[in-house]
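Project outcomes to date are best conveyed with an example. Our students and postdoctoral researchers have been running inverse folding experiments weekly, and each run begins with a structure described purely in tokens. The record below, which covers 213 residues, was selected by the lab manager from last quarter's runs and is presented without edits.
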């Protein structure tokens, strides 16, 4: 969490310096190229960080969860936002603090810096893992890994996103996601009922997910 390990006085000072903002589903917090935004910390729900390529395809860079910082690169270096950010789901809430009050807090409460560094390190690690998957694994392998992650320890689960959203995560298009989903069903790896997926051969999905490109 962003403020994990900070003193109660620091937590209180941080809370008083900003405001809570509740977001409508898919609401944009900022767009790529916008001036540096206020620092945003996800309180509940999640926020999607993404870019559009020249062909109009969306590429998800990450999903910010409670405790994660959003918009930090531009906030800290003063440049423009390097990506779009939008709420996902129906209960996204963020804490917003303007740049000037935030820098004053950093000076008065140095322990906040540790939380910032930790949050940025986690996001950087997620981005590296995503880039590694894009470079080293096929779409089929990435989709198998996605299904296993969405399932967790369950054998049956509801797909958490639309096919368009899944495609953005995998760096592909909706048609490929739909086709691969049907292929996995035909091969007996999964059973699909509407948006509910039943894992029928976890071993094969795990083998596929780790197969090199």
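After processing, the design step wrote out the following sequence:
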């Amino acid at each position: 969490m962003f403020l994990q390990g900070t003193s109660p006085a620091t937590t209180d000072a941080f809370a008083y310096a900003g405001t809570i903002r509740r977001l409508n589903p898919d609401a944009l917090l900022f767009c790529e190229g916008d001036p540096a935004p206020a620092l945003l910390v996800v309180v509940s729900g999640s926020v999607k960080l993404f870019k559009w390529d020249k062909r109009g395809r969306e590429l998800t860079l990450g999903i910010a969860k409670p405790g994660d910082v959003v918009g930090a690169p531009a906030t800290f270096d003063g440049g423009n936002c390097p990506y779009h950010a939008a709420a996902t789901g129906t209960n996204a809430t963020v804490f917003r603090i303007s740049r000037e009050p935030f820098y004053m807090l950093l000076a008065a409460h140095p322990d906040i810096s540790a939380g910032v560094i930790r949050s940025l390190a986690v996001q950087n690690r997620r981005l590296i893992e995503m880039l590694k998957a894009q470079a080293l694994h096929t779409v089929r392998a990435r989709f198998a890994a996605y299904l296993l992650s969405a399932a967790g320890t369950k054998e049956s689960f509801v797909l958490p996103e639309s096919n368009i959203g899944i495609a953005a995560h995998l760096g592909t298009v909706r048609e490929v996601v739909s086709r691969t989903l049907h292929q996995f069903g035909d091969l007996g790896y999964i059973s699909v009922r509407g948006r509910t997926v039943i894992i029928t051969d976890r071993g094969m999905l795990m083998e596929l997910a780790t197969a090199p490109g």
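The first helix runs from residue 8 to 17. The mean pLDDT is 83. The training component of this project remains on track.
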